Amino acid sequence: MKRGLAFAASLALFAMIGTAKAEEPVKIGYGIAKTGIFAPAADSQIKTYQLWAEQLNAEGGLDVAGKKRPVQFVVYDDQSDFAKAPAIYEKLITSDKVDLLLAPWGTPFHFAVVGVLEKYQFPMVGNSASSTRIRDIKPGNIWFPTSAMPDKQAAALVAMLKAEGVKTAAINTLQLPFSQEVKKFLMPELAKTDIKVVVNEEYAPDTKDLTATLTKIKQGAPDAVISLSYPSDSVLYMKQARELGINAPFQLALVGPTEYSFEKLFGPNLDGMITMGHWSPNQSKWPKARPFYDLYVKKVGEPPDYLDSALAWMSVEILEQAVKKVGLDHAKLRAEISSATFDTIDGPVKFKGVENVITPAMFLQFQKGQAQIVWPPSEATAKFMPKPAWTK
Protein backbone atom coordinates (compact mmCIF):
# COMPACT_ATOMS: atom_id res chain seq x y z
CA MET A 1 0.00 0.00 0.00
CA LYS A 2 2.75 2.40 0.99
CA ARG A 3 4.66 1.48 -2.17
CA GLY A 4 1.52 2.23 -4.24
CA LEU A 5 1.11 5.61 -2.60
CA ALA A 6 4.77 6.43 -3.18
CA PHE A 7 4.43 5.42 -6.85
CA ALA A 8 1.32 7.61 -7.24
CA ALA A 9 3.12 10.53 -5.60
CA SER A 10 6.07 10.06 -7.97
CA LEU A 11 3.74 10.10 -10.97
CA ALA A 12 2.12 13.29 -9.70
CA LEU A 13 5.54 14.89 -9.21
CA PHE A 14 6.67 13.97 -12.72
CA ALA A 15 3.39 15.30 -14.11
CA MET A 16 3.99 18.60 -12.33
CA ILE A 17 7.56 18.78 -13.62
CA GLY A 18 6.37 17.99 -17.11
CA THR A 19 3.72 20.72 -16.92
CA ALA A 20 6.28 23.24 -15.67
CA LYS A 21 8.67 22.35 -18.46
CA ALA A 22 5.91 22.63 -21.04
CA GLU A 23 4.88 26.12 -19.90
CA GLU A 24 5.12 28.47 -22.89
CA PRO A 25 7.61 31.32 -22.41
CA VAL A 26 6.46 34.92 -22.53
CA LYS A 27 8.20 36.43 -25.56
CA ILE A 28 9.35 39.97 -24.91
CA GLY A 29 10.93 42.01 -27.69
CA TYR A 30 12.88 45.21 -28.05
CA GLY A 31 15.28 47.00 -30.36
CA ILE A 32 18.17 48.97 -28.95
CA ALA A 33 21.55 50.47 -29.82
CA LYS A 34 24.05 47.63 -29.43
CA THR A 35 26.38 49.27 -31.94
CA GLY A 36 26.89 52.86 -33.12
CA ILE A 37 27.24 56.16 -31.28
CA PHE A 38 24.51 55.47 -28.70
CA ALA A 39 25.65 51.95 -27.79
CA PRO A 40 27.71 53.03 -24.73
CA ALA A 41 24.71 54.91 -23.33
CA ALA A 42 22.26 52.08 -24.06
CA ASP A 43 24.45 49.45 -22.39
CA SER A 44 23.14 50.07 -18.87
CA GLN A 45 19.55 49.73 -20.11
CA ILE A 46 20.37 46.38 -21.74
CA LYS A 47 22.02 45.15 -18.53
CA THR A 48 18.97 46.21 -16.54
CA TYR A 49 16.60 44.31 -18.82
CA GLN A 50 18.83 41.23 -18.61
CA LEU A 51 18.97 41.45 -14.81
CA TRP A 52 15.18 41.66 -14.63
CA ALA A 53 14.70 38.58 -16.84
CA GLU A 54 17.35 36.66 -14.90
CA GLN A 55 15.66 37.45 -11.58
CA LEU A 56 12.21 36.56 -12.88
CA ASN A 57 13.32 33.24 -14.32
CA ALA A 58 15.19 32.36 -11.13
CA GLU A 59 11.90 32.86 -9.27
CA GLY A 60 9.87 30.74 -11.68
CA GLY A 61 9.08 33.33 -14.33
CA LEU A 62 6.76 36.26 -14.96
CA ASP A 63 3.47 36.11 -13.08
CA VAL A 64 0.80 36.23 -15.82
CA ALA A 65 -2.49 36.74 -13.99
CA GLY A 66 -1.55 34.11 -11.42
CA LYS A 67 0.48 31.70 -13.57
CA LYS A 68 4.27 31.95 -13.75
CA ARG A 69 5.86 31.61 -17.17
CA PRO A 70 9.55 31.92 -18.15
CA VAL A 71 10.68 35.04 -19.96
CA GLN A 72 12.34 34.85 -23.38
CA PHE A 73 13.82 37.95 -25.05
CA VAL A 74 13.83 38.72 -28.78
CA VAL A 75 16.35 41.53 -29.36
CA TYR A 76 17.56 43.46 -32.40
CA ASP A 77 20.32 46.02 -32.82
CA ASP A 78 18.96 49.32 -34.17
CA GLN A 79 22.58 50.38 -34.83
CA SER A 80 21.96 53.79 -33.20
CA ASP A 81 19.74 54.71 -36.18
CA PHE A 82 16.24 55.71 -35.13
CA ALA A 83 15.07 55.31 -38.72
CA LYS A 84 15.53 51.54 -38.28
CA ALA A 85 13.41 51.36 -35.12
CA PRO A 86 9.91 51.26 -36.72
CA ALA A 87 10.77 48.26 -38.92
CA ILE A 88 12.30 46.43 -35.95
CA TYR A 89 9.24 46.94 -33.77
CA GLU A 90 6.88 46.01 -36.60
CA LYS A 91 8.84 42.80 -37.12
CA LEU A 92 8.68 42.03 -33.40
CA ILE A 93 4.90 42.39 -33.48
CA THR A 94 4.03 40.77 -36.80
CA SER A 95 6.76 38.17 -37.49
CA ASP A 96 8.14 37.33 -34.07
CA LYS A 97 4.70 37.67 -32.49
CA VAL A 98 6.05 38.84 -29.16
CA ASP A 99 3.69 39.05 -26.20
CA LEU A 100 5.20 42.22 -24.74
CA LEU A 101 7.52 45.03 -25.81
CA LEU A 102 10.26 46.85 -23.94
CA ALA A 103 11.46 50.30 -24.95
CA PRO A 104 14.50 51.31 -27.03
CA TRP A 105 17.07 53.80 -25.76
CA GLY A 106 16.59 57.53 -26.23
CA THR A 107 13.90 60.05 -27.12
CA PRO A 108 14.16 59.91 -30.95
CA PHE A 109 13.81 56.11 -30.89
CA HIS A 110 10.70 56.27 -28.72
CA PHE A 111 9.19 58.80 -31.12
CA ALA A 112 10.08 56.59 -34.05
CA VAL A 113 8.05 53.63 -32.78
CA VAL A 114 4.92 55.49 -31.61
CA GLY A 115 3.25 55.03 -35.00
CA VAL A 116 3.86 51.28 -34.92
CA LEU A 117 2.44 51.01 -31.39
CA GLU A 118 -0.68 52.89 -32.48
CA LYS A 119 -1.08 50.89 -35.70
CA TYR A 120 -1.13 47.58 -33.82
CA GLN A 121 -2.61 48.92 -30.56
CA PHE A 122 0.36 47.45 -28.73
CA PRO A 123 1.09 48.95 -25.27
CA MET A 124 4.68 49.73 -24.24
CA VAL A 125 6.05 51.45 -21.14
CA GLY A 126 8.79 53.84 -22.22
CA ASN A 127 11.77 54.81 -20.09
CA SER A 128 14.90 56.64 -21.32
CA ALA A 129 13.00 59.36 -23.18
CA SER A 130 11.16 62.57 -22.53
CA SER A 131 9.46 65.23 -24.63
CA THR A 132 6.51 67.55 -24.31
CA ARG A 133 5.80 66.91 -27.99
CA ILE A 134 4.49 63.45 -27.16
CA ARG A 135 1.51 65.18 -25.53
CA ASP A 136 0.51 66.59 -28.92
CA ILE A 137 0.45 63.12 -30.48
CA LYS A 138 -1.82 61.92 -27.65
CA PRO A 139 -0.86 58.27 -28.05
CA GLY A 140 -2.74 55.65 -26.14
CA ASN A 141 -0.07 52.94 -26.08
CA ILE A 142 3.04 54.54 -24.56
CA TRP A 143 3.76 56.00 -21.13
CA PHE A 144 6.78 57.81 -19.65
CA PRO A 145 7.75 57.16 -16.01
CA THR A 146 10.39 59.92 -16.11
CA SER A 147 9.70 63.20 -14.33
CA ALA A 148 12.26 64.97 -16.51
CA MET A 149 9.81 66.48 -18.99
CA PRO A 150 11.64 69.45 -20.57
CA ASP A 151 9.19 72.15 -19.45
CA LYS A 152 9.06 70.94 -15.85
CA GLN A 153 12.80 70.30 -15.82
CA ALA A 154 13.58 73.81 -17.07
CA ALA A 155 11.39 75.40 -14.39
CA ALA A 156 12.99 73.24 -11.68
CA LEU A 157 16.50 74.09 -12.89
CA VAL A 158 15.85 77.82 -12.78
CA ALA A 159 14.30 77.51 -9.32
CA MET A 160 17.45 75.73 -8.19
CA LEU A 161 19.73 78.37 -9.76
CA LYS A 162 17.83 81.11 -7.94
CA ALA A 163 17.95 79.23 -4.65
CA GLU A 164 21.73 78.92 -4.95
CA GLY A 165 22.17 82.64 -5.65
CA VAL A 166 23.33 82.29 -9.27
CA LYS A 167 23.59 85.68 -10.99
CA THR A 168 25.30 84.76 -14.27
CA ALA A 169 25.06 81.64 -16.43
CA ALA A 170 26.60 80.20 -19.59
CA ILE A 171 24.67 77.77 -21.78
CA ASN A 172 26.09 75.40 -24.41
CA THR A 173 23.56 73.23 -26.24
CA LEU A 174 23.91 70.10 -28.34
CA GLN A 175 21.86 70.28 -31.54
CA LEU A 176 19.74 67.20 -30.85
CA PRO A 177 15.99 67.21 -30.07
CA PHE A 178 15.99 66.64 -26.32
CA SER A 179 18.74 69.15 -25.53
CA GLN A 180 17.13 71.77 -27.73
CA GLU A 181 13.72 71.18 -26.21
CA VAL A 182 15.13 71.74 -22.72
CA LYS A 183 16.69 74.98 -23.96
CA LYS A 184 13.40 76.02 -25.55
CA PHE A 185 11.80 76.08 -22.10
CA LEU A 186 14.90 77.14 -20.19
CA MET A 187 15.41 80.50 -21.89
CA PRO A 188 11.93 81.93 -21.09
CA GLU A 189 12.28 80.73 -17.49
CA LEU A 190 15.64 82.48 -17.17
CA ALA A 191 14.15 85.64 -18.71
CA LYS A 192 11.75 85.86 -15.74
CA THR A 193 14.74 86.22 -13.38
CA ASP A 194 17.68 88.58 -12.93
CA ILE A 195 20.11 85.82 -13.98
CA LYS A 196 22.23 87.13 -16.86
CA VAL A 197 23.18 84.72 -19.67
CA VAL A 198 26.77 85.64 -20.57
CA VAL A 199 27.34 82.89 -23.20
CA ASN A 200 24.72 81.11 -25.31
CA GLU A 201 26.17 78.74 -27.90
CA GLU A 202 25.15 75.57 -29.78
CA TYR A 203 27.20 72.77 -31.37
CA ALA A 204 26.69 69.89 -33.79
CA PRO A 205 26.50 66.23 -32.66
CA ASP A 206 29.81 65.40 -34.38
CA THR A 207 31.75 68.17 -32.61
CA LYS A 208 35.10 66.95 -31.29
CA ASP A 209 36.40 70.17 -29.73
CA LEU A 210 34.56 72.69 -27.54
CA THR A 211 37.63 74.80 -26.80
CA ALA A 212 36.43 77.97 -28.57
CA THR A 213 33.11 78.09 -26.70
CA LEU A 214 34.61 77.00 -23.39
CA THR A 215 37.25 79.72 -23.67
CA LYS A 216 34.43 82.27 -24.00
CA ILE A 217 32.78 80.72 -20.95
CA LYS A 218 35.99 80.93 -18.93
CA GLN A 219 36.40 84.58 -19.90
CA GLY A 220 32.79 85.29 -18.89
CA ALA A 221 33.41 83.73 -15.44
CA PRO A 222 29.77 82.73 -14.89
CA ASP A 223 28.41 81.40 -11.61
CA ALA A 224 26.81 78.50 -13.51
CA VAL A 225 27.70 76.53 -16.63
CA ILE A 226 24.82 74.59 -18.17
CA SER A 227 25.98 72.03 -20.71
CA LEU A 228 22.85 70.68 -22.42
CA SER A 229 24.74 67.63 -23.61
CA TYR A 230 24.46 63.89 -24.27
CA PRO A 231 26.90 61.34 -22.79
CA SER A 232 29.77 61.55 -25.29
CA ASP A 233 29.88 65.34 -25.36
CA SER A 234 29.31 65.53 -21.60
CA VAL A 235 32.65 63.70 -21.42
CA LEU A 236 34.10 66.25 -23.84
CA TYR A 237 32.76 69.16 -21.78
CA MET A 238 34.15 67.82 -18.52
CA LYS A 239 37.57 67.01 -19.98
CA GLN A 240 37.98 70.41 -21.59
CA ALA A 241 36.46 72.35 -18.67
CA ARG A 242 39.09 70.67 -16.49
CA GLU A 243 41.88 71.49 -18.95
CA LEU A 244 40.81 75.14 -19.17
CA GLY A 245 40.19 75.47 -15.45
CA ILE A 246 36.51 76.43 -15.60
CA ASN A 247 35.70 76.43 -11.90
CA ALA A 248 32.14 77.72 -11.76
CA PRO A 249 30.52 76.60 -8.50
CA PHE A 250 27.46 75.32 -10.40
CA GLN A 251 28.20 72.99 -13.34
CA LEU A 252 25.59 70.83 -15.04
CA ALA A 253 25.99 68.22 -17.77
CA LEU A 254 22.49 67.24 -18.84
CA VAL A 255 22.88 63.54 -19.74
CA GLY A 256 25.79 61.23 -18.99
CA PRO A 257 27.29 61.66 -15.52
CA THR A 258 24.90 59.07 -14.08
CA GLU A 259 26.70 56.38 -16.11
CA TYR A 260 29.38 54.39 -14.28
CA SER A 261 31.86 55.18 -17.07
CA PHE A 262 32.02 58.78 -15.82
CA GLU A 263 33.13 57.64 -12.38
CA LYS A 264 35.84 55.54 -14.00
CA LEU A 265 36.95 58.40 -16.26
CA PHE A 266 36.86 61.29 -13.80
CA GLY A 267 37.13 59.83 -10.31
CA PRO A 268 36.98 62.62 -7.69
CA ASN A 269 36.50 65.22 -10.45
CA LEU A 270 32.95 63.92 -10.86
CA ASP A 271 32.14 65.36 -7.43
CA GLY A 272 30.07 68.51 -7.61
CA MET A 273 28.69 67.80 -11.10
CA ILE A 274 24.93 68.23 -11.43
CA THR A 275 22.87 66.23 -13.90
CA MET A 276 19.28 65.31 -14.67
CA GLY A 277 17.89 62.38 -12.72
CA HIS A 278 15.22 61.61 -10.18
CA TRP A 279 16.45 58.47 -8.43
CA SER A 280 19.01 57.75 -5.75
CA PRO A 281 19.53 54.64 -3.62
CA ASN A 282 20.03 57.06 -0.74
CA GLN A 283 16.34 58.07 -0.69
CA SER A 284 15.13 56.15 2.37
CA LYS A 285 11.44 56.83 1.76
CA TRP A 286 11.62 54.62 -1.36
CA PRO A 287 12.07 51.17 0.21
CA LYS A 288 12.85 49.46 -3.11
CA ALA A 289 15.65 51.88 -4.04
CA ARG A 290 18.59 50.48 -2.06
CA PRO A 291 17.74 46.79 -2.71
CA PHE A 292 17.76 47.46 -6.47
CA TYR A 293 21.14 49.20 -6.21
CA ASP A 294 22.61 46.34 -4.18
CA LEU A 295 21.20 43.69 -6.53
CA TYR A 296 22.57 45.46 -9.60
CA VAL A 297 26.04 45.85 -8.07
CA LYS A 298 26.08 42.20 -6.97
CA LYS A 299 24.99 40.80 -10.34
CA VAL A 300 26.55 43.28 -12.80
CA GLY A 301 29.67 44.20 -10.85
CA GLU A 302 29.24 47.96 -11.10
CA PRO A 303 26.72 50.60 -9.96
CA PRO A 304 23.62 51.14 -12.08
CA ASP A 305 23.15 54.23 -14.19
CA TYR A 306 21.23 56.49 -11.80
CA LEU A 307 19.07 57.69 -14.71
CA ASP A 308 18.69 55.06 -17.43
CA SER A 309 19.05 51.92 -15.29
CA ALA A 310 16.54 53.34 -12.83
CA LEU A 311 14.08 54.26 -15.58
CA ALA A 312 14.48 50.88 -17.29
CA TRP A 313 13.83 49.08 -14.00
CA MET A 314 10.81 51.30 -13.28
CA SER A 315 9.38 50.46 -16.71
CA VAL A 316 9.66 46.70 -16.16
CA GLU A 317 8.27 47.02 -12.62
CA ILE A 318 5.20 48.75 -14.05
CA LEU A 319 4.82 46.17 -16.82
CA GLU A 320 5.31 43.28 -14.39
CA GLN A 321 2.68 44.59 -11.97
CA ALA A 322 0.17 45.18 -14.77
CA VAL A 323 0.72 41.70 -16.26
CA LYS A 324 0.35 40.10 -12.86
CA LYS A 325 -3.05 41.71 -12.46
CA VAL A 326 -4.59 41.46 -15.96
CA GLY A 327 -2.42 39.08 -18.00
CA LEU A 328 -1.21 39.66 -21.57
CA ASP A 329 -4.37 41.02 -23.19
CA HIS A 330 -3.34 44.33 -24.74
CA ALA A 331 -6.62 46.14 -24.16
CA LYS A 332 -6.61 45.16 -20.49
CA LEU A 333 -2.93 46.12 -20.13
CA ARG A 334 -3.63 49.50 -21.71
CA ALA A 335 -6.46 50.16 -19.29
CA GLU A 336 -4.43 48.99 -16.28
CA ILE A 337 -1.29 51.01 -17.07
CA SER A 338 -3.39 54.10 -17.78
CA SER A 339 -5.25 54.00 -14.48
CA ALA A 340 -3.35 52.14 -11.75
CA THR A 341 -0.73 53.40 -9.28
CA PHE A 342 2.50 51.40 -9.39
CA ASP A 343 5.05 50.70 -6.65
CA THR A 344 8.57 51.32 -8.01
CA ILE A 345 12.14 51.94 -6.90
CA ASP A 346 11.35 55.64 -7.45
CA GLY A 347 8.28 55.57 -5.24
CA PRO A 348 4.68 55.53 -6.49
CA VAL A 349 4.02 56.19 -10.18
CA LYS A 350 0.68 57.06 -11.76
CA PHE A 351 0.04 58.22 -15.30
CA LYS A 352 -2.22 60.96 -16.59
CA GLY A 353 -2.10 60.65 -20.34
CA VAL A 354 1.53 59.76 -21.10
CA GLU A 355 3.06 61.40 -18.03
CA ASN A 356 4.00 60.32 -14.54
CA VAL A 357 2.07 62.83 -12.43
CA ILE A 358 3.42 61.88 -8.99
CA THR A 359 7.22 62.21 -9.27
CA PRO A 360 8.51 65.81 -9.36
CA ALA A 361 11.35 67.02 -11.59
CA MET A 362 14.64 66.54 -9.75
CA PHE A 363 18.38 67.03 -10.13
CA LEU A 364 21.25 64.91 -8.91
CA GLN A 365 24.70 65.96 -7.73
CA PHE A 366 27.65 63.66 -7.21
CA GLN A 367 29.11 63.93 -3.73
CA LYS A 368 31.92 61.58 -2.69
CA GLY A 369 31.12 59.39 -5.65
CA GLN A 370 27.43 59.01 -4.73
CA ALA A 371 24.51 60.44 -6.69
CA GLN A 372 22.47 62.53 -4.28
CA ILE A 373 19.15 64.24 -4.97
CA VAL A 374 19.75 67.94 -4.31
CA TRP A 375 16.59 69.41 -5.85
CA PRO A 376 13.80 69.89 -4.91
CA PRO A 377 14.29 70.24 -1.15
CA SER A 378 11.26 68.01 -0.48
CA GLU A 379 13.04 65.05 -2.11
CA ALA A 380 16.66 65.91 -1.33
CA THR A 381 19.02 63.30 0.08
CA ALA A 382 21.79 65.91 0.50
CA LYS A 383 22.28 69.67 0.27
CA PHE A 384 23.84 71.26 -2.82
CA MET A 385 27.58 71.85 -2.56
CA PRO A 386 29.62 74.18 -4.80
CA LYS A 387 31.70 72.19 -7.28
CA PRO A 388 35.28 71.84 -6.05
CA ALA A 389 38.02 73.06 -8.37
CA TRP A 390 39.11 70.54 -11.01
CA THR A 391 42.23 68.57 -10.21
CA LYS A 392 44.62 67.26 -12.84
Keywords:
seven-stranded mixed β-sheet; 20% strand; 2 domains; Rossmann fold; three-stranded parallel β-sheet; alpha/beta; disordered N terminus; globular; 392 residues
Task: Report the strand count.
Answer: 17
Number of helices: 13
- Helicity range: 40-55%
CATH class of the largest domain: Alpha Beta
Give the integer mean of the pLDDT values: 93
Shape designation: globular
Beginning-to-end CA distance, first to last residue: 82 Å
Sketch the major β-sheet: 7 strands, mixed
Strand order of the largest sheet: 9-8-10-11-12-16-17
Number of domains: 2
**CATH architecture classification of the largest domain:** 3-Layer(aba) Sandwich
The CATH superfamily of the largest domain is known as Response regulator
Weakly predicted, low-confidence segments: 1-20
- The CATH topology assignment of the largest domain is Rossmann fold
Supply the helix-strand structural class. Answer: alpha/beta
Any idea what the radius of gyration is?
23 Å
What does this structure look like?
The chain is of the alpha/beta class and 392 residues long. The chain folds into two domains: 11-149 and 286-356, Rossmann fold (3-Layer(aba) Sandwich), CATH 3.40.50.2300; 150-281 and 362-375, Rossmann fold, CATH 3.40.50. β11, α10 (260-266) and β12 form a beta-alpha-beta unit. It is 44% helix and 20% strand. α2 (39-58) runs parallel beside α12, α3 (85-94) runs parallel beside α4 (107-120) and α8 packs across α9. The chain is built from 13 helices and 17 strands. It is globular. Strands 9-8-10-11-12-16-17 form a seven-stranded mixed sheet, with helices on both faces. A three-stranded parallel sheet has the order 4-1-5, sandwiched between helices. A three-stranded antiparallel sheet has the order 13-14-15. Residues 1-20 have low confidence and may be disordered.
